[in-house]
Every structure is written in structure tokens, then in C-alpha cells.
Write a structure and sequence with these properties.
This protein is α/β, with parallel strands linked by helices. The protein contains 10 helices and 12 strands. Strand 9 (284-286) and strand 10 form a beta hairpin. The chain is globular.
């Protein structure tokens, strides 16, 4: 750091993205991207939009909002689009947390939550997961803070039923509950319909996973119009033109190409279940995932050992050097061929260990 860096950032422990090594070609199963390219329709609309990028994009993403509102059954003033769902989450920390209203979230969850809290200068409290790495919903009743729940959770992949999430929302009427549904399309149960019932619920989703637009950076938030207005106040104080024209156009194409979306999601779910079976045959224990990744550990090898051995052989997975996570690796569900290579490489590694 330079001598000019503000001291207020001394405690900022920045988020570390999944590695993107360039030294050789890897089977890349470490960043939860889709194994499928964007919808052909999404690609076509993005190319068309490229012809007018000398102009500023629509700060309201009006065309995208209209299509999304119809698709998801919400009013146009109950939705906002952002530069990835990370941005709407960051806006929520800024809008709904302060010195008197801390952020509250699990101790094992999406690693950006403590970063957002620290960067926005708000206190936060982490609530430990249970021994089986599940959320105890009663721990979040009346917590007197803004609650952030990833559902399905990351990096575990475990999902709570919508009825359990609703209990948290109902038990915190004086505070906002943010439900991060980045992975919900892979088997989770969305609480999006509950925004009509509760004025303190914000639901975030992303196009990065199930809709193959990780590089496009497109996220969305759903809530009653008052909460969306709050989020927009933060947005317009930061970056009005946060969703570029090509990304907005690709988002329209991704939403309209429902058949492509459903087919890809179904394939990923099937591949996930097949991979779980293959891993368990190799001696791994897996958590019940409703995401596009698998959290797995082996009885005779540490997570770091599995990660390092795979990387040496050209397969990238994610390892978290944290308490209660060190035994595990997180494995993105790639193509069927990717997962075949993973299983065969793991079999070789286990054989070498013997």
C-alpha cells in the first residue's frame, strides 16, 4: 500500500476471487461459472447493442426491466438491475446498515459480506452455523440488524426451504432481510413471491450462474417499491450508468430464451448428481447441494491436499483455508466431460496416495 491510502481502509480484508492462472490450460472448476455459452439470442442482441455504444446506456435499463417484471410477476418499480448481484448487495449494506443497525450473517457464507460491511463502515455480527453446516433459523429471530442470508448458501450449497426463510423475515419486522439467491435456479426454493407480503424483504439474483453471463456482470434485486427506491438512491449517488447497453441487451435475450435456460439448468443438475455419485464411490463425503457446485471432503486427504494434487494435474477447484472448511474443496459443476476428467484424476490421486 502507498502512504496515501486512507487509514479508514486499514481493516479492510479484500475479497479474494477464484484464481485465474494463465500458466497452462486447466479444467476450470473453481469459480462456479456455467459450462454453457450464453444463449445464442443473448449473444445476437448484445452484438446489435454494440453498434450504439457511443451513447450512454439507459440508466433505468427500461426495456430489460419491463421484460423481467412480466417474467417474474412483479411491478416495474419492484425491480432493479445492477452490475452483478454483488453491486445490489453492496448497495444494501450502504442503504440498510449503520452504526445502530449492524449487518448479521452466518460465519460461513459468501465471503464478500464482511468485505461489504467493512468497506461501508458498518459493524457486523457473524452467527455460527450448526455442526452440520446448516443455518439455525431461530438464531436470526429479532437480531436487531439487517440480515443477509445466501440461500442456497455458499460455499456449502445447502438450501433452506422458503417457509424457513419466511420465519426469519417475519421475525424481523423492523429490519430488512436480504436473501441472496445467486444459486436458487439449481434446486432451491425462491422467496421472491414474498416481497408482496413483507415490506422488509429484498431478494437478489444473478445472471452469472444459470444464465451464463458471468462476464457480462448482471444482477437484480426485487423488493417493494420503497426498498427499491432506497437502493436507487444509493445507485444514483454512485454510478447511474451501472449496467452497460450490451449487458442489458444480453440480459433480455437470456430472459426470453427460456427453453435454453431450462435445458442448461436441468443438465447441470443431472451432472451434479452424477458427480456426487462418482465422488462418493471414491470415498468422498458431500453436502446436499442445491447449487451448481459440490462441497466435498475425503476421509484420508485434507482439502488442501486434494486441491494441490488436482491443480498439479491440471484441474482447478476452490479451497478455503478457514476453520471448519479446511477438510473440504468446492467443485463447480462443469460439463460432463469436465466431471469425467475430475473423477479420473481424483482416482489417480487416491491411487498414488495408497
Amino acid at each position: 500500500m502507498s502512504k496515501f491510502m486512507s487509514k479508514r481502509h486499514d481493516e479492510l480484508d479484500a475479497y479474494v476471487p477464484g484464481e485465474q492462472p494463465q500458466d497452462k490450460k486447466y479444467v476450470k472448476l473453481n469459480t462456479n461459472e456455467s459450462p454453457f455459452p450464453p444463449s445464442p439470442f443473448a449473444q445476437r442482441l448484445a452484438r446489435q447493442a454494440a453498434g450504439t455504444i457511443e451513447l450512454y446506456c439507459d440508466p433505468e435499463s427500461g426495456a430489460l426491466v419491463r421484460i423481467a417484471a412480466e417474467k417474474f410477476g412483479v411491478a416495474e418499480d419492484e425491480i432493479i438491475f445492477t452490475n452483478g448481484s454483488d453491486e445490489v448487495l453492496d448497495f444494501a449494506f450502504a442503504a440498510f446498515c449503520d452504526d445502530k443497525t449492524p449487518a448479521v450473517f452466518p460465519d460461513i457464507t459468501y465471503g464478500f459480506y464482511p468485505v461489504f460491511a467493512t468497506r461501508n463502515g458498518v459493524p457486523y455480527r457473524e452467527i455460527p452455523l450448526k455442526e452440520d453446516l446448516t443455518v439455525n433459523v431461530e438464531d436470526y429471530f429479532g437480531v436487531k440488524g439487517t440480515v443477509f442470508i445466501a440461500n442456497p448458501n455458499a460455499p456449502t450449497g445447502i438450501a433452506l426451504p422458503a417457509a424457513e426463510i419466511e420465519k426469519i423475515v417475519k421475525a424481523n419486522p423492523d429490519n430488512v432481510v436480504v436473501v441472496d439467491e445467486a444459486y436458487v435456479d439449481f434446486g432451491g426454493e425462491s422467496v421472491l413471491p414474498l416481497i408482496k407480503k413483507y415490506d422488509n424483504l429484498l431478494v437478489t439474483e444473478t445472471f452469472s450462474k444459470s444464465r451464463s453471463l458471468a462476464g457480462g456482470r448482471l444482477g437484480m434485486g426485487f423488493a417493494n417499491k420503497a426498498l427499491i427506491a432506497d437502493i436507487k438512491k444509493i445507485k444514483y449517488s454512485f454510478n447511474p450508468y451501472n449496467v452497460n447497453s450490451m449487458t442489458a441487451a444480453a440480459g433480455i435475450g437470456a430472459l426470453l430464451d427460456e427453453e435454453y435456460f431450462k435445458a442448461n439448468v436441468a443438465t447441470i443438475i443431472k451432472t451434479r448428481e452424477n458427480t456426487v455419485f462418482a465422488l462418493e464411490k471414491l470415498g468422498f463425503t458431500t453436502l446436499p447441494s442445491k447449487a451448481n457446485f459440490i462441497f466435498a471432503k475425503h476421509a484420508k486427504m485434507s482439502g488442501k491436499c486434494v486441491y494441490s494434487a488436482l491443480k498439479d494435474k491440471g484441474v482447478l477447484v476452490r479451497y478455503f483455508d478457514k476453520d471448519r472448511l479446511r477438510d473440504y474443496v468446492r467443485i463447480t459443476v462443469g460439463s460432463a466431460e469436465d466431471m469425467r476428467v475430475l473423477a479420473e484424476t481424483l482416482a489417480d490421486i487416491i491411487g498414488e496416495q495408497k
